[in-house]
Write the structure tokens for this entry.
Amino acid sequence: MNVFQKILNWMSGMGRVFRREFKLMVHDPGVLLFFVALPLAYPIVYTLIYNPEVVRELPVAVVDDSRTAASRDFVRKADASPSIDIYAYCPNMADAKELMAEGKVFGIMQIPGDYSKCIGRGEQAHVEFYADMSLLLRYRTFVSALTDLQLEVISDITGERISSVGLESLAAGSGGLPIKSESNFLGDTEQGFASFVIPGIVILILQQSMILGITLLGGTSRDRRRRNGGIDPKAISGVGAMASIWGKALAYVVFYIPLTIYIMRFIPEIFNLPHYGSPVHYLLFIFPMLLATAFLGLTLNIFMKERESAFIIIVFTSVVFLFLSGLTWPRYAMNDLWLWVGNFVPAVWGVEGFIRINSNAASLPEVGTAFWWLWSLVAVYMVTAAVVMKVTTPAKR
């Protein structure tokens, strides 16, 4: 048999496995739950949870022990912020704490009695702020609003001090400060939590849903072998391990292409999330991630003793992969062990590359490191999947 005939036979066997695996997928309700329902529903559910992306007009109680024009001006500027709403003036901290305990306010602003005197003497004045930490989104909003408020008050006070020494023109021209501070949030112009986290979450959804479906199929195959003396009656005979894993992997990837387009293209448009990158670039980028994920799922089949094993072994990894992706803690701050563990998770590189393309309009060459890491994982998990196929499949079928 010549080389050309061997290649044709290999491709024919791969095609038969592809068709068989595709048929098994579409006729298994459990697999369809992971392959279809989960990718369709989860991005919508997560995005709705994180909407509205920013919180506005958070109620705040004020304890003004200074009771001066300067303190009232400070409170007035705080109330003018779109993020803060002065809910009530309280005579003391006890009353303010009671309002917070009742859930009527989420922050307390306490202005000390010497606030105006410190400003008048050119000393540093202090204003204390206490925030309800039950929701970090509120805390983030308070920090941002108070930082802007602080810069505004500093600018005004500095301008007044410059004017007081006869440099009115300098004060008017500079607005009080020689350098103007502005914040520009690249890739997240809304400064919203959904715009920040959802582009990464959807990649993790793609990986985890595919692995769950693949391992469910693997556990079901083990069940059939156990009932039929070690033989899976639905397996394709006469096909080598490499042709078999490629047929299966391509079946999963082809099945996921429409879902990937839906998640990566239409979800950002529906919810007005960042989507600045080229669809061609991020679809080309995500292909090796899907392929590496498919081979990883086939590799994990070695642990699937029965159908339910997928739930026990795979589901808990979602939180682990979320942390390894760098969404909740930057990867550069991780120790070497977890950094290398993350390097072997396809979604970790998928999250890094997709966010750069989608949110910052990076091109495929600009995410070259992540792209080639994904192709490296394709090679690694292709080999491990072939080994698992040979180990778990009887020599005679």
Notes: The longest helix spans residues 193-227. The two ends are 23 Å apart (CA to CA).
